[in-house]
Each structure stands twice: as C-alpha cells, then as structure tokens.
Amino acid sequence: MIKKNFVSALALAVLITGMSSCGGGDTDGTTTGNDSLAGDSMAEDNSDEMQDEQNYLLPSPLQIAYIFKKSGMKYVPGTAHDPNLAANYSSQFTQSIALGLYSSDLAYCVLNKQSNDARNYMKAVKDLSDKLGMAAVFNSDDLMKRFDANIGNEDSIMFILSELQSKSDEFFSSNDRQVTAAEVFSGAWVESMYIASKVSKGKDSKLAEQLADQMAILDNLIKELKKHEASDSNIGGLLAQLQGIHDIIMEIP
Questions:
Q1: Residue ranges per domain, the chain?
Q2: What is the tens place of the pLDDT at every residue in 3-20?
Q3: pLDDT digit string (tens) for 169-179?
Q4: Please, are residues 123 and 83 in contact by the beta-carbon 8 Å criterion?
Q5: d(CA 75, CA 167)
Q6: Which of 20, 122, 149, 224 pairs with 214 at a CA distance of 20 to 30 A?
Q7: CA 35 and chain centroid, separation
Q8: What DSSP state is assigned to residue 33?
Q9: Residue 18: φ, ψ to 5°
C-alpha cells in the first residue's frame, strides 16, 4: 500500500505539468550561511564537511496541511490512506513511512473538521508510534485522552497536535533516531502531496502554486535522507523514488 502511494505521487509530476506556477523551475530550499564566506579560501575545502553536518529544516505535517488549507484545499472523503491498514506494516521502515502518512492524514482531517475520521487517524498514529518504541510520546500528558476530550474543539486539537509533533521531535533527537524522523517525514510529505494533487486536479491555481513551492522542501528532504543512506538499506530505494519525482518536475519548462 505504501508503494502504491509513492506510485500515485509520481502522478503529481503529470498534474503539475499544466500549472503555470511551475514557471522557472528553479527552487532552492536550503540556506547554509556560506554567503558570508564568499572569497574565503577555506569555504570550498570545508563544504563537504559542512554539508554532512547541516540539518535541513523540514516542516511538520500539520504545517504543510495548514499551508494547503489556506490555499483552499477541501476535504474529499476517501482520499486519505485507509487507517484500518495500519496493522499491516510490520518492518520498522514501513512503520516509519506509515506513521508519516497517517500524521498527514490526521492533520488533513483536523483542519477540515472531520472529527470521526481524525479520531481513527489519531489511533493509527498512536499504534504505529508504540510499535516504533515511541509510547512515551503519547503516555506523557495523556495525549490520547486529551485528544478524545477535545475532539470538537479545533483550537485545542491543533494545540495537542503541535505538542505531539514537539514531543516526537524531542524523542527523535534524544534517542538518536534521526533516520526514523527522516523516514516519517518522507511519508508525511508524499501523502500531503498526494492528497493535494488529487483534490486540486490541477484546477485550483492557489493550490497548484503551493504544490510547486513544495519542491523546495523536497530538495531538503532528499539532502537529509542522503545523510542517512548508510544507516538503512531501505533509504536508497526511497531516495530513488523521491529523486524521480524531483527530476520529472524540474524538467517541466
């Protein structure tokens, strides 16, 4: 099922072909701070080392969903990944990708006031988090109970999701799980792009523009994954799929 989502995401390149917002196709989503070192003879020598140490900033699934929501993305039932499939993912890699998928779906439902669906996706996120050894993220401050108690209050739910993201980031950092973090975001990014492309179908200019702007984030994601390629044999295949999306879109005139 995850592979199906990646294949579907490749259709994003086709959908974007007719979007005028793809204009220049020249996007650079990173800032390394090297501009101030222009002319310094040491800058070139140290560039590879600096790239290895660079942490590429990646937004949360909630932030991506909010960007698309502001651009007019509507809720379309059946577009998001089936939460009942969460139990099907058995390896750490597929669970990490699926956690990202469902985190994106959760944000999509919450921002569109789909309380019942949001509850199902929150459960999927919790179940996968537990399997990945992240039970402490939910157990602290009773996040699941608070989510259920505030399910009709969008502001409270948004705060809880922000807190969940913050605690997850802290967990990844404290437990040296940067590889998992990158894999989770990969799933979240692909699912966000898949939903947005399916909903817009290239017709909504604002949404189409945001889809094109996401390519800068894809650049960062690819660079982040390359840092961890030696840590997980699955990352090579993931990188190939993401690079394929990137290359097709960058070739659009």
A1: 2-15+57-77+86-250
A2: 444 434 444 443 433 332
A3: 999 999 999 99
A4: yes
A5: 27
A6: 122
A7: 28
A8: S
A9: -90, 10
